[in-house]
Fold this sequence. Notes:
Layout: H1 4-7, E1 9-10, E2 16-17, E3 33-37, E4 40-45, E5 55-57, H2 67-73, E6 79-83, H3 87-95, E7 99-109, E8 115-120, E9 123-125, E10 128-130, H4 137-149, E11 152-169, E12 172-186, E13 198-204, H5 209-212, H6 218-228
Parallel strand pairs: 4-6, 5-6, 7-12
Antiparallel strand pairs: 1-2, 3-4, 7-10, 8-9, 8-13, 11-12
Amino acid sequence: MTEPHDILTQQGDGRVATPECNMPLPVEADGTIRVSFADKEVIFTQHEISITGACELRPLADESISRAKITTFLGNYNNVVIISPNPMAHFIDFASQFVWVEAAGGIAVDADGRVAMIRRNERWDLPKGHRECGENFEVCAAREAEEETGVKILGVDRLLATTLHCYNLYGKWEMKYTAWYAMRAESCDLTPQSEEGIVAAEWIEPNDVAEKIKNSFSTIKKVFAAFYN
């Protein structure tokens, strides 16, 4: 696994990117960075953000943000907002306390505009998976879509979004960076990859997407928002 302090390298234009693929982090126009923890979120920002009931932290410039402290707060709050004069520096320090994992996936659409979606853990989701050593993100996105749904990917188009989410897997905290792409797919019968816990793989009509993702994670909603905009 690549460690975050090796991969999160500040660029001249202010972006942080991986040295291997020059992939950007999901930094908003005002410098805000959002990290998902399932249905909860940690926000690194320079600005006041009005979120009802959020926990706000205002660390000193050289103060470290403890992962243990944040995960404890997330037990009681849905949002933790870290207001900092240098949110990127605090984010990189925070990320260094996780195992860094890279993945890719996306929205595979057939000629009729239908989207290949999966259902796992009682939620509708998009196919994605870990990037293999030496594999670029576009190839990973196509491979994972094909493996998880049985779809045939005809081409990988634009990068829609990148997201960050954290989880504790078997006592090990990981931070997953995912690159999401728009992909062109061939119409075919779909088959869920059951060994990955996927119970359904279906073509979803464009008009039905909004209803399907009502209970999805915020990262999935972000990807669809980028796709349709």
